[in-house]
Design a protein that fits this description.
- 21% of the residues lie in helices and 28% in strands.
- By secondary structure, the protein is of the alpha+beta class.
- It folds into three domains: 63 residues, RNA-binding S4 domain (Structural Genomics Hypothetical 15.5 Kd Protein In mrcA-pckA Intergenic Region, Chain A, Roll); 95 residues, Pseudouridine synthase (2-Layer Sandwich), CATH 3.30.2350.10; 123 residues, Pseudouridine synthase.
- Strands 5, 6, 7, 8, 9, 10, 11, 12, 13 and 14 form a ten-stranded mixed beta sheet that branches. Strands 1-4-2-3 form a four-stranded antiparallel beta sheet.
- A hairpin with a 7-residue loop joins strand 9 and strand 10.
- Helix 1 crosses helix 2.
- The longest helix has 12 residues.
- The protein starts with a strand and ends with a helix.
Length: 318
Amino acid sequence: MAETIEFIAGEADAGLRLDIVVSQHLQTTRSAAALLISEGDVLVDGRPRKPSFKLAEAMTVSVRRKEEQAPGTLNPYDIPLDIIYEDASIIVIDKPAGLVVHPGAGNRDQTLVNALIQHYPEIAGVGSEERPGIVHRLDKLTSGVMVVARTEDAYHNLIQAFKEHRHTRVYQALCYGHLEQATGRIETFMDRHPKNRKKMSSKVDQGREAITNWEVLAQWPQFSLLKLSLETGRTHQIRVHLSDMGHPVVADPEYGGRGRANSIIDPQIRAHVKSQERQMLHACLLGITHPVTGQLMEFTSPIPEDMQGLIDLLDASV
């Protein structure tokens, strides 16, 4: 039995390839989205299109999704993992951009969880049945450091530590524009966007507390490189805070970072930014208290090639 998923292309989807937009909305790989399109399971305004078809805002996209395996059934999948550290209790991973953390609609196999149970089968019984070992997450299109629990005791200890905001989480982001100060603090409520329930907003009168501290590391015409540390860990927190301040993360597909590319003056930089398939956001440092030994530990990840490539281009332009 199949079900049909339908969504309206938004401003961030305009001008993007159909396979990219479908992969983002279904949380699946671009190749899996292209296969659905090629098999006629994706319609745009009622008509089949090629994977390369460029969407316009307000187009209706319908996806016929075939029956998936039963919820709770997780298959191992051999995806290479970049392991920063491991012991009997935890695994610390440098997650690449594009890798979904846990299975969801349209992607039951090619996620970090599936890779973990391939390489560490014992994790399948740790914590949540659908998200074994996962104590926090990064967005699909965000790269960087993550810790995973390898035992039940470690899982509950780490979950509690994240709930109480006892860990250190530091990110780097390339954003549009120049902030008014060299350092600052953003403290707001955060809740579902009142008009688009798939997005979050900090322009709300109630919700959960969200606190982000920022520091300017470098600036170029039209761009800044920021260091951001989280005191809370709300969904899309950094992306929402920067966007609502008028400084969206470069190439962010949901919070204004793609549409803003048209305002870039330098044609080479504009073309480069438009070619990026993910937001320029990287989790560069994670500090934790080890769930068994109590030792304070910090793990870092160097800025990835795609972000460094844009930084090099910006440096060369001034």
